[in-house]
Amino acid sequence: MSVNRKKLIIEAATKSFSLFGYKATTMDQVAKIANVGKGTIYTFYANKEELFKEIVDNMIVEMEQEADDAINPELTFTENLHLTLYRLLEFRREHQLMIKLFQEEQEIRTPAVLEMVEEIENAIISFIAQKIKIAIQKKYIKDCDPELTAFLLLKMYITLIVDWERIRKPLNKEEIAELFDLYLFKGLSL
Amino acid sequence: MSVNRKKLIIEAATKSFSLFGYKATTMDQVAKIANVGKGTIYTFYANKEELFKEIVDNMIVEMEQEADDAINPELTFTENLHLTLYRLLEFRREHQLMIKLFQEEQEIRTPAVLEMVEEIENAIISFIAQKIKIAIQKKYIKDCDPELTAFLLLKMYITLIVDWERIRKPLNKEEIAELFDLYLFKGLSL
DNA sequence: TTGATGACTGGATTTCTCATTCGGTCAGTT
DNA sequence: AACTGACCGAATGAGAAATCCAGTCATCAA
C-alpha cells in the first residue's frame, strides 16, 4: 500500500471530533482532512458512530495508561488511589476530546455522545474497581463490593472537586486528599 | 372579608404547579381554579415567580417537619441520620410537586425552576448541616466542616439510592443503612 | 372609594413551511 | 480491486405566521 489510509482517517477523525465535537464533525470533513475519498472511510467503519467509537476507545486506553503512570509503589494504597483518581479527573478536565464530549452531552444531548460518555464512565469505574479488588485481596482495606465502592469513590471525588466548587470555595489537592482520607478511610466515628 | 382569597389562590396554585409544573401552569388557570379574577392574584404576588416561591417554600417547611418527625431519640446519631436522609429522599420521591419540579429541571430547564430546585437543595443541606453541627458539639462524630459534610452525605445518599439503581440492582433500606455506616462512619481502613 | 375583575396588549414561544445539510450508497475511475 | 465523489433522501435548521400567556388597567359592584 502507498499510505496507511486507516491511520490517516483515525488521525483526521480524532482532530475533528476534538475540535468540533461529534455532531459538528461531518464525514466529508474527515475525508477532506485525511485526503481520502468519503467512501474509503466506509470501507473501514460501517458508519459515523463506529468511527467515533474507535476514537473514543483509543482515548480511554490513553487515559488508563496515564492513570497507571500516576501510581507510585513507594506510597500507600490510599495515597495512590487519590493520585489515580486525581489524574483521571485531570485527564477529563484537560483532554480536548473529553471537554467537547461533556459539552455536547450537556448541551445537545446527541444520543451517540451520551452512549460514549457512559462507556467512558464505565471504563473509569472498572479501572478503579480493579484496583480496589487487589487492595481487598492484599488486606489493605475492608472487604466490600469493588464496583459499588469504585462508583462511590468516583462520585465522592467528583463531589469534592467539581460539585462543591460550584457552590462554595474550591478545594486544593492537599485538602481533597485529606478529606478523602477522613471521610472514606478513617470514617467519621470517634 | 367574605372569603380568604389568598388562601384560595395558594391552594389553587399548589394544585396546579403539582399537576402541571411551573411552565404549564398559567395564571388564568390558577385564577379559574381559585374562583378569583386574575388581577386579584397580582394584589398578593408581584409575579408568577413569587407565587411559585411561596408554594415551594411551604413545601420546604412541610419537608423539614417530616424529616424531624423521623427522628427517634432512642436511636443512635448514625441511625437517626440515616432515617432523616431516607425520609428526605422519600419526600422527594413521593411528593407530587417535587416530582414535577425535578422533571421540569431535567427536561425543560425553566430558569425559575432551576432556581427553586437549588433553593430546595440548599434547604436540605442546611437542615442536615444543623444536625451535624450538634453531633460534633456532643462529640458523636469527629470535628469536620458541617456544610461540606452535609453536602457529601446527601450526595453519597443519592448515589447509593438513585444513581446506583440506574446502572445496577437497587439496594433496600437495610443495605443502604449498612453501607452508609461502613463507608462514612467506620471507614474502609482496617 | 376601594377591592375585585377580565378584556386587552405585546413579547415570547410554538407551529408550519420551505431550504439546506450531511450520512450513507454506488456507478464509475484508476 | 481499491478508491472516489456525485447523488439521494431523511433529518435538521431558518424564517414566517399563528398562538399563547404574564402582566396591566379601565371598569364595575358593593
TrEMBL record, chains A, B:
DNA-binding residues per UniProt?
26-45
Q: Which GO terms describe its molecular function?
A: DNA binding
* Classification lineage: Bacteria, Bacillati, Bacillota, Bacilli, Bacillales
Q: Which UniProt keywords apply?
A: DNA-binding, Repressor
- One Pfam family, short name: TetR_C_24
Q: Where is the HTH tetR-type domain?
A: 3-63
What this protein is called in its record is TetR family transcriptional regulator
Q: Which InterPro entries match?
A: Homeodomain-like_sf, HTH-type_Tx_Regulator, HTH_TetR, KstR2_TetR_C, Tet_transcr_reg_TetR-rel_C_sf
Cite the PROSITE patterns for this sequence. Answer: HTH_TETR_2
Q: Which SUPFAM superfamilies match?
A: Homeodomain-like (SSF46689), Tetracyclin repressor-like, C-terminal domain (SSF48498)
